[in-house]
TrEMBL record:
Protein's name according to its UniProt entry: DUF4276 family protein
InterPro entries in the cross-refs: DUF4276
Top-level taxonomy: Bacteria, Pseudomonadati, Pseudomonadota, Gammaproteobacteria, Pseudomonadales
Superkingdom of source: Bacteria
């Protein structure tokens, strides 16, 4: 029996971040597989069939998508849950939505960004209101580019930042929910 966590993602930047983040979070008995799609439309179009056709009957699935400009996080999550249920494996699936963008997670942990990108003094800005609760920012990726003086690069920086993100960081509710979801599925897999 393979204890496997399969994470379906809308884009490559989330994949490279999780490649360096998950080994610090998951028990070594858990294998993980990251499947990046070509954007949110591709994810929503193909996720049901990918989950349904997945060979490992013991696998658990986590679908992660940015909210972006979708007006309702709740409706978006419900729509993705419907697609998981349509696969016939809804009971083995979980959906997590990043409030606005993946970069929200990074803005919630400026110490990780500072360390990963070598930007001295960045973590001192964590006390600024918008970085204490970054889930409410309209364009986190723009904020991060400005804050990092344009050194933030979506793929390369995400890989490095993933190495340093604080697993227990609670400044972003969506990040905290993602970690809790990963831990929940890990618990289910370890109980098999």
């Amino acid at each position: 029996m393979r204890r496997e966590l399969v994470i379906l993602l809308e884009e490559r930047s989330a994949k490279v971040m999780l490649e360096t983040f998950l080994p610090r979070v998951l028990d070594e008995k858990i294998e993980f597989r990251l499947i990046a799609f070509e954007g949110k439309q591709d994810l929503e179009k193909r996720m049901t069939m990918r989950i349904k056709g997945y060979v490992n009957e013991y696998a658990r699935f986590l679908v992660m998508r940015d909210q972006d400009s979708d007006p309702s996080c709740i409706n978006l999550k419900a729509r993705l849950i419907e697609k998981c249920n349509a696969s016939g494996r809804g009971d083995a699936s979980l959906v997590r939505v990043a409030c606005r963008e993946l970069e929200t997670f990074y803005l919630a942990d400026l110490k990780a960004v500072e360390t990963a990108l070598g930007l001295k003094g960045l973590s001192n800005k964590q006390h600024v209101a918008k970085f204490r609760s970054p889930d409410y920012l309209t364009s986190p990726s723009h904020e991060l580019k400005v804050l990092s003086k344009q050194t933030y690069e979506k793929i390369g920086s995400s890989r490095e930042i993933g190495r340093y993100l604080d697993i227990d960081n609670a400044r972003s509710d969506s990040f905290r929910n993602l970690v809790q979801g990963i831990k929940r599925l890990e618990g289910e897999l370890l109980a098999l």
